[in-house]
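Tokens as discussed.
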């Protein structure tokens, strides 16, 4: 199996063990089950009691700000007729009766 070179030896070992084609040799498939996986070198710094008790802090995701240089990209969804009818606070929905919300949509239907 070809794995990316950027992976650590322990990560490669874990993946190879998890993806073994022979189920009887696959890590975690034996009588000890998940304990065998938890004891793998890849998880050496994990305190499984902390995991169970939800004591680890969840890492903050890194969110990139994507800039759109294409003027068309910003306007692709402008005419969808997005409405906020409070079915779920903070969520917007596209109205299924688009001709009621998007006059240009209903006009284009009449022209065809």
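Sequence:
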């Amino acid at each position: 199996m070809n794995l990316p070179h950027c992976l650590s030896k322990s990560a490669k070992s874990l993946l190879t063990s998890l993806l073994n084609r022979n189920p009887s040799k696959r890590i975690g498939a034996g009588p000890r089950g998940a304990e065998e996986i938890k004891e793998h070198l890849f998880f050496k710094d994990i305190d499984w009691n902390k995991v169970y008790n939800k004591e680890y802090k969840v890492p903050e995701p890194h969110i990139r700000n994507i800039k759109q240089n294409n003027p068309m990209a910003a306007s692709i969804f402008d005419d969808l007729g997005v409405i906020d009818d409070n079915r779920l606070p903070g969520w917007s929905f596209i109205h299924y009766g688009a001709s009621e919300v998007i006059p240009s949509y209903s006009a284009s239907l009449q022209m065809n």
